[in-house]
């Protein structure tokens, strides 16, 4: 993603008249969205675009037509600075920590990725997805009970049924005790004491020599009562302590009882004899850094295996151009040279004649801004190295106000580590790290939330437990790059053809994830583009799949188009306002198309980005 050098964004608008097959509800032509091809894109422009409901897949940037599309997709973000990990999140972090420290995988080796593409490939495109009948039993196995943090996601109905069944087997006279194969089984149940107390064979029936199984919530309730009693006793004893001793005891208890955050699990010191070493490296992918180039082939092999095993792609489908994930660049060196001269002349004209500032002309945007992160802004790969080997790669955009999660691929052999959830938590922690250097960067964008998708909605959660997850549908878009070659210029017919192919699902590129709740989260109002807490949005979405979240009826889009004549246009390699271009244009008027484009991107972006016109 271009971030500096004074090169503005250059886009080619396609509109959104045609409907395509929906990957959520499987409608043949219900998916409607506006689209444009980004020949180049600055980080500030993309930040402003995603704050207006746009999203990009490689160089193709699209915006769902929210009030018409079959499955509205709402932009969702997490307030990273205030995020608190739930118990399920902590389990994932503990699992990774335990694996690194002890190499213990006995309890988790059969567990599948709970939030990434193991669930289903439901996306805007029509891709093969794992149906319910294809889900293995190991994927349905719940997490092992962790008594240190308590047990969650209990299946109440099945739990009560099993417990009642065990009680009945012990107390009823009609219990039939399984015998050896050589022992004949009587037609009538035995009433003898010997039969009742006979030890069952391993794995057959309840072991009467042991106490009855108890529910985890009963155990937690008992522990809580014991803790309250201990606190009361400690209070009584503490009343006898004098001055500083009581204050010291109180401070030590308060520190001990503070909940752990992500950093406490991620950056905890490991023992000297740790079995594994995990390292997370952030390498720039656009423009590609030397580290990115050096590790590209290894990263590609992980991507290829991920696509073949998880998405069932044939061996020839995952290509290098897809994993390259370079979203924006100037394809034609000759065009770049002439464009830079044109852009410089335009900036000089605007500053001299119209008294605009350099920032208005895009002349002072720097890749490494003074108050920005040390790594700079743009597109990056977050590589997860385990014992000197890449096991996962998270593709992210670092923007002025957020870290935007784009895609994740990983080695399927390590799916037991729940790398989808783990990488999301690491990206939230990374956002917090960047915030220390860049105070404005404080959000984690997770993609889209689709409330109307029946396959991916999970509403049956226990509201009595604060840690219970409200699963969100988040669509993470994989970036695509088409290898045009060095002779492709603006307006090339293959550009639109490929963009349509992405929407129709003829090219790989979409991945959806079912994610645990990442609180606090906000959804973007599709009409006024203001952020609203998700708790306020859900009741509205229950009533209607499309909803305006801003309850102020008089509120309007503050960034709406106000002056069409100020929209910047790139025509015949010359930058000009639309008012000038309109006079020079020959042929039928394209004002309606330009008006639609400008109203969708907003006044600010329309004056900063260059709309290509042939």
TrEMBL record:
<feature type="compositionally biased region" description="Basic and acidic residues">
    <location>
        <begin position="146"/>
        <end position="172"/>
    </location>
</feature>
<keyword id="KW-0808">Transferase</keyword>
<protein>
    <recommendedName>
        <fullName>Arginyl-tRNA--protein transferase 1</fullName>
        <ecNumber>2.3.2.8</ecNumber>
    </recommendedName>
</protein>
<feature type="domain" description="N-end aminoacyl transferase N-terminal">
    <location>
        <begin position="21"/>
        <end position="91"/>
    </location>
</feature>
<comment type="similarity">
    <text>Belongs to the R-transferase family.</text>
</comment>
<dbReference type="InterPro" id="IPR007471">
    <property type="entry name" value="N-end_Aminoacyl_Trfase_N"/>
</dbReference>
<dbReference type="GO" id="GO:0004057">
    <property type="term" value="F:arginyl-tRNA--protein transferase activity"/>
</dbReference>
<keyword id="KW-0012">Acyltransferase</keyword>
<dbReference type="InterPro" id="IPR007472">
    <property type="entry name" value="N-end_Aminoacyl_Trfase_C"/>
</dbReference>
<dbReference type="InterPro" id="IPR030700">
    <property type="entry name" value="N-end_Aminoacyl_Trfase"/>
</dbReference>
<feature type="region of interest" description="Disordered">
    <location>
        <begin position="134"/>
        <end position="211"/>
    </location>
</feature>
<dbReference type="InterPro" id="IPR017137">
    <property type="entry name" value="Arg-tRNA-P_Trfase_1_euk"/>
</dbReference>
<feature type="domain" description="N-end rule aminoacyl transferase C-terminal">
    <location>
        <begin position="343"/>
        <end position="460"/>
    </location>
</feature>
<dbReference type="Pfam" id="PF04376">
    <property type="entry name" value="ATE_N"/>
</dbReference>
<dbReference type="GO" id="GO:0005737">
    <property type="term" value="C:cytoplasm"/>
</dbReference>
<dbReference type="Pfam" id="PF04377">
    <property type="entry name" value="ATE_C"/>
</dbReference>
<keyword id="KW-0833">Ubl conjugation pathway</keyword>
<comment type="function">
    <text>Involved in the post-translational conjugation of arginine to the N-terminal aspartate or glutamate of a protein. This arginylation is required for degradation of the protein via the ubiquitin pathway.</text>
</comment>
């Amino acid at each position: 993603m271009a971030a500096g050098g004074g090169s503005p964004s250059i886009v080619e608008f396609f509109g959104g008249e045609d409907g395509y097959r929906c990957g959520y509800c499987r409608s043949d032509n219900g998916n409607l969205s506006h689209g444009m091809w980004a020949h180049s894109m600055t980080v500030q422009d993309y930040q402003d675009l995603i704050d207006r409901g746009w999203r990009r897949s490689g160089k193709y940037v699209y915006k769902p037509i929210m009030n018409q599309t079959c499955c509205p997709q709402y932009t969702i973000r997490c307030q990273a600075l205030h995020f608190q990990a739930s118990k399920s999140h902590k389990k994932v972090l503990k699992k990774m920590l335990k694996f690194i420290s002890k190499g213990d995988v006995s309890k988790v080796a059969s567990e599948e990725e709970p939030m990434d593409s193991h669930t289903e490939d439901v996306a805007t495109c029509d891709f093969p997805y794992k149906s319910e009948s294809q889900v293995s039993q190991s994927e349905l196995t719940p997490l092992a009970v962790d008594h240190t943090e308590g047990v969650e996601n209990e299946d109440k109905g099945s739990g009560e049924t099993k417990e009642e069944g065990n009680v009945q087997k012990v107390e009823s006279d009609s219990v039939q005790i399984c015998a050896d194969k050589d022992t004949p089984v009587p037609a009538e149940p035995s009433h003898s004491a010997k039969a009742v107390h006979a030890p069952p064979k391993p794995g057959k029936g309840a072991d009467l020599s042991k106490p009855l199984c108890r529910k985890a919530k009963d155990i937690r309730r008992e522990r809580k009562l014991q803790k309250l009693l201990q606190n009361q006793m400690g209070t009584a004893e503490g009343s006898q302590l004098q001055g500083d001793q009581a204050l010291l005891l109180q401070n030590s208890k308060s520190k001990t009882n503070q909940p752990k955050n992500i950093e406490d699990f991620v950056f905890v010191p490991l023992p000297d004899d740790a079995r594994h070493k995990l390292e997370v490296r952030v390498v720039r992918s656009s423009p590609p850094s030397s580290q990115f180039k050096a590790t590209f082939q290894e990263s590609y092999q992980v991507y290829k295996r991920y696509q073949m095993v998880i998405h069932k792609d044939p061996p020839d489908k995952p290509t290098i151009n897809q994993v390259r994930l370079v979203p924006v660049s100037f394809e034609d060196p000759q065009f770049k040279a002439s464009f830079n001269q044109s852009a410089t002349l335009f900036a000089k004209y605007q500053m001299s004649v119209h008294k605009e500032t350099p920032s208005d002309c895009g002349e002072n945007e720097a890749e490494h801004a003074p108050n920005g992160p040390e790594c700079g802004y743009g597109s990056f790969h977050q590589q997860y190295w385990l014992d000197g080997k890449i096991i996962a790669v998270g593709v992210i955009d670092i923007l002025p106000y957020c870290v935007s999660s784009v895609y994740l691929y990983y080695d399927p052999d390590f799916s037991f580590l729940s790398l989808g959830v783990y990488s999301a938590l690491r990206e939230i922690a990374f956002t917090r790290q960047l915030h220390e250097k860049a105070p404005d960067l404080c959000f984690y964008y997770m993609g889209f939330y689709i409330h109307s998708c029946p396959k991916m909605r999970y509403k049956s959660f226990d509201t009595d437990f604060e840690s219970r997850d409200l699963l969100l549908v988040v669509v993470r878009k994989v970036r695509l790059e088409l290898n045009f070659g060095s002779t492709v210029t603006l307006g090339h017919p293959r550009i639109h053809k490929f963009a349509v192919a992405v929407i129709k699902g003829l090219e790989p590129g979409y991945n959806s994830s079912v994610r645990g709740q990442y609180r606090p989260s906000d959804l973007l109002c599709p009409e006024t583009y203001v952020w609203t807490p998700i708790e306020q949005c859900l009741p509205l979405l229950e009533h209607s799949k499309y909803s305006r979240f801003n309850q102020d009826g008089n509120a309007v889009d503050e960034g709406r188009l106000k002056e069409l004549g100020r929209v910047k246009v790139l025509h015949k390699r010359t930058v000009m306002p639309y008012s000038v271009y309109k006079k020079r244009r020959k042929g039928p008027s394209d004002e309606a198309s330009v008006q639609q484009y400008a109203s969708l991107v907003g006044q600010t972006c329309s004056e900063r980005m260059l709309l290509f016109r042939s």
